[in-house]
Task: structure prediction
Amino acid sequence: MLAICNTKIILEEGMIWDGTVLCKEDRIADFGPGNEVTIPEGADILDAKGKYTAPGLIDIHCHGGNMKFFYEDPQKAAEVHFKNGTTTLLPALYQTLTYEQFTEGIDRIRLAQKEGSGRIIAGLYMEGPFMNPKYGSDAANSKWKGHIDEARMRSLVDYAGKDVRVWCVAPEREDIEVFCKYAKQVNPNVRFSMGHTECRPWQAYRLKKYGLINQTHHGNATAVNNPIVPSNVGIRDVGPDEACLYDSDMYAELIADSMAIHVKPHMLRLVMKVKGLNKVILITDHYPENCGNPAGPFWGGKKAEDLGYVSDGAVCGSLMTLNTACRNMMAHTGCGLCHAIQFATINPARMLGIDDEVGSIEKGKKANLVVTDDMLHVEHVIFEGRRQ
Ligand SMILES: [Zn+2]
Result:
């Protein structure tokens, strides 16, 4: 038994100011106001000293950590996220990997899941390979351009199998429905996300029947130019961003970096307003590519500490952990702590369909918790009922 007391409990719809959370084995056994919850004798007591207890964070789109990619060294990559309060994480594998790199990376990830920080890994986020190689950093290096070879596609889907929670696709790719149909047949619980794409709304909606429910990093790698009007006329076309904003079923991933380079503060606020509090998902898109470039590029004279870069200086993901993304979201939009945490816990859990197990503080759910201050400086991480 673990009892977290003297804490403000962050619930899905509200807060308990002076509360206690009880964990028994790997589950949340009880919670409530401190004077209503009896702490059993012999329980391990964690005095939160008035700080907040929130559900463990869920990062569904994360390429690496500690200067390592998940496909290379998943244990090392997971460490930094775990320490900072992420207790459920989907390693993202990108379209520039070859077939062999995908399968070897998946093998390493499967092995890492069994112990240590690797235990936070809850499946895979396949960022490709069937996206549009015109969009995104290094996308031109995609090893999966052109016609979708059905045998090679099936072989990848068979290999990744049921471990894939999200396949990111460009709905405009030729034969993408053949792929979606097969991926769904292999894993009926799989979700599709549109990303690295210039699709029109109707092309996206066509994939809803297979489970398209998410947009990969809204506002990034989604440029659309009106093909029939010269670009200097300045007529805005509609593309993936508008398709996501318009469709009320769809979730929008946001990368909220400290300088709002990926998504401008006004756009973060617009997405929050249009999608509502239940359909926003914060991600890190952590990408350790710039480890060889310690000086890093500068933006407006300031060093962008939490941005990822590829060698040509293009922005490529971030170097954040998800607690930082929550903090940035509050700074750029004025949203409160509870909502920022909702964007990083129950919303991604619902999108993936794992909200019966994780994503909020409820009796019977996994006791994955963080004790944090109001700026998301994480002080304690509890994983499956145990202090880490
Ligand atoms: Zn991406």
